[in-house]
Structure formats: structure tokens, C-alpha cells
Design a protein that fits this description.
Helix content of chain B: 40-55%
Radius of gyration of chain A: 17 Å
Largest sheet of chain A: 8 strands, parallel, barrel
Largest interface: A-B, 38 and 40 residues
Number of strands of chain B: 15
Structural class of chain A: alpha/beta
Strand order of the largest sheet of chain A: 1-2-3-4-5-6-7-8
CATH class of chain A: Alpha Beta
Structural class of chain B: alpha/beta
Strand content of chain A: 5-15%
Distance between the termini of chain B: 48 Å
Radius of gyration of chain B: 19 Å
Oligomer: heterodimer
Amino acid sequence: MNEPTVAIDSGLERVAAAFGTHRRRAALMPYLMGGFPSLEQSLAIGEACVHAGADLIEVGMPYSDPLADGPVIHEAGTAALAGGATLGGVLEVVRALAPSVPVVLMCYANMVTAPGAAAFVDRLAQTGACGLIVPDLPFEESDEVLGACDAAGLALVGLVAPTTPPARFAEIGARARGFLYAVSVVGTTGERASLSDDVAAVVARAKASTDVPVALGFGISTATHARQAADAGADGVIVGTRLVRAAGESADPAAAVGAALEEIGRGLEP
Amino acid sequence: MSSSATDSPIAHRFGRYGGQYVPETLMPALAELEQAWLGARDNPEYRAELDLLLRDFVGRPTPLYRARRLSERLGWPVYLKREDLAHTGSHKLNNALGQTLLAKRMGKRRVIAETGAGQHGVATATACALLGLECVVYMGAEDVRRQQPNVQRMMLLGAEVLPVQVGARTLKEAVSAAIRDWVTNVATTHYVIGSVVGPAPYPALVRDLQRVIGDEARAQILDHEGRLPARVIACVGGGSNSIGVFTAFLADDEVELVGVEAGGDGVHTGRHGAPLTVGGRAGILHGSLSAVLQDEEGQIVEAHSVSAGLDYPGAGPEHAQLRDSGRARYVAVTDRQALDAFGELTRLEGIIPALETAHALAWLLAQPQGELDLLCLSGRGDKDLAEVAALS
């Protein structure tokens, strides 16, 4: 009897593998805006990220009212929507990337609940995505989406912030699936000159509150920041705005994003 | 009711509507605000200071005026609750003063606000001048253009007015910009939201501060007429003057409550600001689940209205519940009807109403019959003269 050569892993298992198999000090986790500058180019950017060593990719669904995002990602989302990006189109980008890298969709709550959480999550699961991040869904409001993700084998990634009090860490950590997203700054997404002094404390509290890996994001835009995140104990480093800016500024977005990600990844070399 | 609200007397949910759909960074600030309001609202010292300022600074109680020629024209008595006579020219100062006093109690020296027509921005800037607080007001660039007098007033009052250039550059984007500022500066800053929208506890907090309108009006009409009105009518953008006047009458089943939304070019055109009237699937906007204008995928759709204060694709969650329960009903009138009513009230009564208020008046003027009506004249229309002149 032949052993199966390809294992069909659940999204949760693929996310866990992303943190378990890389040879860096922390997993390299780029974010790209679906449909920016165009659907085709966002797919090419994702492929360039895979070539640049991405361990997991976050694909952002453009949204009309992105409350957690700073100007660069907000404007990229607005441009993507103006260019005709739809959920269906962005999910095709996810589907095309999923065989080569674990993909997590970042999507605001109203789009998740619009068709009903279960219907949305089922549709996402069919693309081969591994998980979902909903930046405006605190744990108090998350029961339905979490239930749907658990049923579909998708990781609903929880978020903690520097303002999160200790008692909330335990609640959020217990509900986190796949990884726990530690927000490094009090603020929206965007590049910063330096990482805040709070980072080590947030990462330490996050790690103490959960069994899943902890990834640090918001404001990480250089190799030095990435090294500092690893020094602080982060299991993964999420790079968003720096790459979205590169995509918007270059005539060859995929090459520019790939180069920027490689450079930041150097900060995670052992 | 959400699980987190079970031990709290401040409503997080109105039926299935409301909630707290915000980034994690803000959740502790919402909890802090809720605790602060629980501690302040029945605190004798806070109450005494607010009541004193409502009387001597705002000019409350505002009169309930029997509109002589309007009543004659319609054929039945109509009373106007004169919020236009409150300091700064609208009902907005009731809420702005209550919240800035609260901010001071919380030790927050910086206050931010959004504004559409500029009335809430002026009210917040006024309260901040009175209390010596730093004030930043976000205003859509399109509204900066069409509400210039209020921009000048805010700047005179010492506030910084930040034009918002994204999207349709109106109220929705101003609220989003204010929320992003709050996410960034939450430790030092209180966000004075201007309507009964946003994440809990705001819808309940703003209602508590605006219910003075209805509490006064109910006592006044009983005093004048010895009976309750058959209808209470108010315009609805986010819905703060309407909740403010409705709340006192909620238990009076015989009183019909009518909320008038912005019909824009007509609700059938899709270019309007009437999410409660058109119905459809509930959605999440600015932190709460309520009636929202959105597309099939859940993208929020831009609203359209001649009135900057009603040019908003959402409405407060308590309104959505009042609609579903049938306790209140919601209707829409077009830009054209509102502009006509603006001119008609001015000539009939010598009162220039805000374009927002003119929507409620337009609905009333179109009624074939009535018995005894009470309409909340939520604000004065001086700010709208240039816009009305340009459209006439």
C-alpha cells in the first residue's frame, strides 16, 4: 500500500508549520493589499514574497472604512476598490498563492458578517486560506466568527495591543488560533522611525497568555526593527506598510516588494 | 445583550443592534469611559455643575413655542422645541458640555470631535474654550467648503480644524479620522462623538445627555395643552436630537414618534442618507451594528444629502431597534422638499431653521391632517445661508 505523498493539512496545521520550519530567528510575514496596484500585480507581489522567503502571507481585503489602518494602507485600499477589486477577485489571489505559502486574510468585520460569518468563512476555506484576521472584532464580539472558523479548520487570529490590560490578555490568548497578533504601537498601521520601548513588554505578556506563537506587527519597516522584534521574543514579524508603500512607488511593484522584504528578512538571520 | 453588558446598567445592545466593533487598542478606553460615566451621571457634584452650565451657559430650558402661523397654515396646533435658541445654535452643546466635563473628570486634557454641519464641532470647541481643554475637530473637506461660518467659529474658539480629504470628504470620513486619532492618542485624549452612534457606551451616553430635550418638552406641552402630543417629529442623521426628544415619550404609547431622514435625490435613486427608511441588511459602521447603507459585499456606501449633518450612511443602533419594534417610524424627504421647507418656515414664523431640521419640517408640511404635533427644531440655519443661496 502506498503512503499518501501529499498531506492535506488544516489551516491551523499549516500556520503552525510556518512557525515551526523556518530557519530564521522569527517567521517572516509580509502583508499585501489585495488588488493593489491591480489584482494581477498583487498576485505577482505575493509570488515575489514567496521567492523572498515569506513564511506566511497576509492578504488584505480592501475596505471602505479601515479604522485600524494608517494613510498608506488606507489609500492603497481605496485605490484597489476604485480599480474594481471585489472579494471574489481578492479570494482568487488567495487561492493562487495558497499552494505555495500559508495565507491569512485580513478583512474588516462588516464584510465578514455581511453574508453571515459561516458563509464567509466557508467561502474563504474553499480558497485554501489558512486563517482570518478581523482587526475590528474584539473577543467580546467574536463568538460567531470563531465558531465558524473552528468548524472550517481556519485560524481566527486574535489581536492584543499595548493598551490591553492583563485580564484581557488571558481572554484573548485563550481564543487565539494559529498565532496571536501583537500590535507593537498605540496607533494605526504605518512606518515608524523606531520600535516602541513597550514592545518587549507586549510580546512577553502575549507569550505568557497563549499557547500559540506570537507575531509582532504595526510599524516594522527595517531589518533593524525586525531584529529588535526577534530580540523581544516575537515568533513572527509582520511587515505591512513598508511593502505597500514599495508597491505603490515602483514601476515594478513585485520586484520592489520582493527586494524590500529580503532586506528586512536579513534582520532575522541567525 | 452582549455578555460583557450583563453586569452593567449601560446598554451595549439595543435589541440585536449596537456592540463594540473597534480595534483592540480602543477597548480599554471604552471600558474606562463606561466606568467614568457610571461614576459621573448620578454624582451630585458632576450633575450640579452640568445643570448649572445647562441653565446659565446654554440657556436651558429652551422654550416650547406654539408656532402661530405654521399652526394656522396646517390647521392644527404645532409646537416647536426651540433648540435653535440654545447657545451655539443647536442641541449639540447638551452632549458636548456633558462629555467635556466628563473628559475633565477623567483627567484627559485633549478633546477630539468629528463634525458634519459644524454644529457639533462648534459646540465642542465652545465647551473646550469654557473648560480650558485642547480641541481638535475633524471635518470633511466638502463640509469645510459648504459650512464655512462654522469653520470660522471653531477657529475663533481656539480649536484646530483638520479637513479630511479621503472618500466623499463628508461626515463618515470625519468620524473615521477621529477614531484613528483616538486609536493613536487614546491615553491623553477623549473623543466627544457627536451623535448616538459609535461603539458602546457612546449611544447610551449621548442619549443620556440629550434626553433633556424631551424631558423638558414633555413637561412643557403638558403645561401648555394639558395633554400629550399626537406626534413627536425630529430629523435623523446619526439621530441625537431625535433620540433626545423621543426618549421622554417612549412609554407614552399613544404618542407617535416620527424620524425624518435625508432623502437626497430620492430614496429610489440610491443617492440619499436614509438607511432606516430603506431597510435592508444591518451592518457595522464606526463600531456598532445598525442600519447602514452598504453594498452586497459589505462595503459602506456614501450618503448624499444637501444637509451636511444628515449626510451619513448610518444611524444610531437604538433607532434601528425602535424601527424594528414599531415604536418609532422613519421616513425620508428629498433635498428639494427640505429646501422648500427651509424657506417656508423662515417666512411663516421668522425662524431660519437648520437644513437638517428643515427635513422634519418638510415632512410635517406634507401631512394632510394632524391633531397636536411637537417638532424638535434642532438648530438654526444661519450656517446654511450660502449653501441655500447657491442652490436657489
